[in-house]
Amino acid sequence: MDFLRYFRSRQGEMVRFLKTLVQLESPTSEKEAVDRCSAEVLRRLAGLGLKTKKFAQKAIGDLHLIELENGRSGKSEDPVLVLTHIDTVWPLGTIEKMPFYVAGERIYGPGALDMKAGIVMAVFALEAIKKLGEVPKRKVWLFINSAEETGNEESHKQIAALARRAGLVLCLEPGLPGGAIKVQRKGRLVVRIECTGRPAHASTPEKGISAIEELIFQLQNLKKIKIKEMSLNIGQIAGGEKANVVAENAWAVCDLRFWTSDDLDRLKSFLREMQPQQKGAKVKIKIQSFTPPMEFHRASRELFQKAKEIAASLGIDLIPGRSGGGSDASIASHLGLPCLDGLGPEGEGMHAPHEHLLLPTFIQRTALLTRLLLEL
After folding, report:
1. What CATH code would you report for 187-291?
2. Who's near 8: CB < 8 A, 6+ residues apart?
3. Per-residue confidence (pLDDT) for residue 70, from 0 to 100
4. Where are the domains of the chain?
5. d(C-alpha 31, C-alpha 276), whole Å
């Protein structure tokens, strides 16, 4: 089956469905809006004979799992888990000043690239498989996350549980500019450093212990970590009460990113060993959130080679790349599962006003996804 030709013939329908999803704004914090957008995806898939399961949530949008049976007799291989997310970073009302539109080969709109185009790809791939009577080698599990942009303990838990039962993972986050997919992602630790001192009048600072000075010492120390290509961002900082009072409390929140599990071990060891630099000061380190690194281990390398061969038959040169940001695929990869990420279309401007995707890659990647679901 020539899936490139098939999806080119359905290009207009794909763009219209993408427009529908983009106009159904779905910021992570707005549960009702996220659920409305998810409901539209489920309506589109209704009638295809797919199994659906809802993981109801109170604080975030509901999570959804859609299953396509492989239809083969006897024992089949473990399922392929397809990861998507329906939530965006854009607040309600953004569509009024940042509308959906097509300009030549570019499609603009809030959340169009990140990652509603990926959801459209998954929907049309499943439709094609069912309507054309194709039989995949494995079951297909399509997971729709509602809180990827902020991270959520329950969604991470569900992804990990599904990954432990799956055979491989495909994540439909956008591809890298130039066409590379993501086979490596940095891990992330968000760390809060809290310093406590002793208040005193500013005219006699020697009688106090400045928590702000202690925090400065600790942040300077943190920048001394010798981990290759680690990034550190001091994202929030506060402390003290008045200019004429030695600060009793101060804190900062830092974002640290790294490439490997070994890096993570070294980083945690460094954090454990951080000690106050002033006599009488206290320092407390809290890990607020953690995303594991996605490493290009042997299983993922083998999966990439298979995918590269399938892509070549479609005239697509699949290139391995890496990203400093994390995704849900990082969770599955950390469990040792073979993963490919960034299989969505190319584009630019994620989380920015010029967010857009490239239409030709939207069609090409949908054809590739369909072949991967059938052949891996």
Report:
1. 3.30.70.360
2. 363
3. 80
4. 3-186+293-375, 187-291
5. 43
